[in-house]
Amino acid sequence: MKKQLEALKAEALARIAETNDRKELQTIRVAYLGKKGSITGILKGMGKLPKEERPVIGEVANHVRESITEAIEQKNETLEQQALEQQLMNETIDVTLPGRPVPKGGAHLLTKIVKEIEDLFIGMGFEVREGPEVETDYYNFEALNLPKHHPARDMQDTFYITNELLLRTHTSPVQARTMREYEGNKSVKMICPGKVYRRDTDDATHSHQFTQIEGLYVDKDVRMSDLKGILDVFAKKLFGIDREIRLRPSFFPFTEPSVEMDISCKVCHGKGCSVCKGTGWIEILGAGMVHPNVLSMAGYDPEVYTGFAFGMGPERIAMLKYGVDDIRQFYTNDKRFLKQFHTI
């Protein structure tokens, strides 16, 4: 029986050494060490041996079982390592190959226009101010010479939250807040860009939410000629050095006198075409001298201080500058539209 066990050991170790398959290795384990394996079959005959031989054969059987088990485990580790190395070879990545380019993002067209306008006015000494989009009725209307029941309020088509809270209809409240903050004894030179909201039906030229940039300059001896000079620089920097401007009388409750500013048409250069509807001019913004009532309510003495204000829509400016014919294009996030302006 001892010779049989030794022979099984040699046979098993030879088979283990020859195999290169992990499944076959499992088959060898079952064939020699399983409940119905060769070693178990031999040990079933131990009952016929003399009592004194049984411990010796048992020790030999344990040694054979341990030797085969150890050989199988070592071989299994070797095969696992070989399989891993082969997998790594098959999945090798050549890091010297050029990577796939990731498209770069960029600023939205409106963001670019707003930034361009901000930089332009900062260069002329203006500071950029911001304010809340949920505003009080006082700062949105009353502080701007629009008292309760003023007919001009109907033009704003306001989104009211309560009787005293609303979504601001323009960025002018930022101007009123800034003047109130300076307590009437400090000059103001600022622009205030931001979103505004009005109850309007969305179409190619209107939106219930849009962007506005308003400017304010209050100091001693500020004149209409200062306003015209600032706006002339603005038009030439933004639309081209050959652009001309004109101011037409208009009406705004918070300025007196009030004007509309037009720029000469870039297509026909003032001769008249379909873009400017034959006039040679395109309306671009509203402006005027700050109304004395607005100065007084902000704490400024209108006998000492004067000022001018202006307001423009970046969407309209972008539409004129880049030939966009539908304001809704700015809010659809259509990459095909944005790529035209190299924004992504």
Automatic annotation (TrEMBL):
Pfam families xref list: Phe_tRNA-synt_N, tRNA-synt_2d
SUPFAM superfamilies the record matches: Class II aaRS and biotin synthetases, tRNA-binding arm
Annotated compartments: Cytoplasm
InterPro entries referenced in this protein's UniProt entry, alphabetically: aa-tRNA-synth_II, aa-tRNA-synth_II/BPL/LPL, Phe-tRNA-synth_IIc_asu, Phe-tRNA_ligase_II_N, Phe_tRNA_ligase_alpha1_bac, Phenylalanyl-tRNA_Synthase, tRNA-bd_arm
Catalysed reactions, semicolon-separated: tRNA(Phe) + L-phenylalanine + ATP = L-phenylalanyl-tRNA(Phe) + AMP + diphosphate + H(+)
Cofactor: Mg(2+)
Recorded superkingdom: Bacteria
Gene Ontology MF: a single term: transferase activity
GO cellular component, one term: cytoplasm
Alphabetical keyword list: Aminoacyl-tRNA synthetase, ATP-binding, Cytoplasm, Ligase, Magnesium, Metal-binding, Nucleotide-binding, Protein biosynthesis
Binding site for Mg(2+): 256
EC numbers on record: 6.1.1.20
Any one GO BP annotation for this protein: phenylalanyl-tRNA aminoacylation
Keyword Coiled coil on entry: no
Aminoacyl-transfer RNA synthetases class-II family profile domain segment(s): 106-340
Cofactor note: Binds 2 magnesium ions per tetramer.
Primary location class: cytoplasm
Acyltransferase among keywords: no
Subunit composition and interactions: Tetramer of two alpha and two beta subunits.
HAMAP family in the record: Phe_tRNA_synth_alpha1
Family: Belongs to the class-II aminoacyl-tRNA synthetase family. Phe-tRNA synthetase alpha subunit type 1 subfamily.
NCBIfam families for this protein: pheS
Protein name: Phenylalanine--tRNA ligase alpha subunit
Species of provenance: Lentibacillus populi
Lineage of producing organism: Bacteria, Bacillati, Bacillota, Bacilli, Bacillales
